[in-house]
Amino acid sequence: GRREALGPVNMEAEALGPEAAREAWRGEIPAVFSLAPQDITTLQSPPDYHVCLPRQAWLPLVMERVEAHFLPFGPPLACPMWVEYDSCLMRWQIPIGVLFDLLVGEQDRVVLPWRLTVHLQSFPSELLLHPSPSAAESLVLNALKESCFLCCGSALPAMTLSAEAQQHLRESVATSSYDKFRVVHEQVWRGITSQLGNASNPRAIPIRVYTGQTSWRQLPVHPANAEGTMFQLAYALETLLPRIFARSKDEPPPSEPVVLVQGVRVPLSTPILWLHHWCCHPDGFLYVCVLGVD
Q1: What is 27-119's CATH topology?
Q2: DSSP calls for 54-95
Q3: Where is the Autophagy protein ATG5 alpha-helical bundle region domain (predicted)?
Q4: In the prediction, which pLDDT does 99 show?
């Protein structure tokens, strides 16, 4: 689930970028799915289903085999399958790796494999959107349009992706293929660069900061100041979570929150433009998890 730090951010940071991206895409979480006891309708309980979940994916895109494994042991499927961890329902709209970081934090060496409970009935429709592969694909593409708009003021780089490029994006997420994703990512960035014209940096960094599954902030964060000095992750956190990070020197220091990007503790001095370019998710957003916040 967890890997070592991405490495020092210094003059070699740009050279470290491709390595950081590949490491992020290699990330998988060993998981064990069990069918909820109240959903078992056969005399014999089903065996657990073991799988490695890609951190870059969304649950509906990788759950087809899990569902097929448990269906013979449960009631006729009258509602979408849904998943819990430790009695906490999992919101599939959040990438799997981000869910893991929020729900498990840095206790991965204790809890792995990640034990998840599958439900085949009593779908909590008042709390969850109905999951499906097509809904997840639409979610990713719509978020990609939004992230492009934040970067350059236009959604065209995402809207003009060919059917083949969109298929590569879907396959990259389902198979954890960084090479396929890189082709699409570079095509999107060429479109963003074209829209920006003479500007050297994006207009804003698409960033989402989560402190819980239902607690998150998203605001446009500029990558650099008027002089061209790159803003660091600390600046983004002060902008998005001022109560926690933007404290005066006279205030007593709070307990230090844990900040994770792609499951890795990241120095707050890391330039956010570098982080976004090399550590964003397939939807074009940089996801930051802040743990240990009341």
Answers
A1: Ubiquitin-like (UB roll) (3.10.20)
A2: ETTS-GGGT-HHHHHHHGGGSS---S--EEEETTEE--TTS-
A3: 135-187
A4: 97
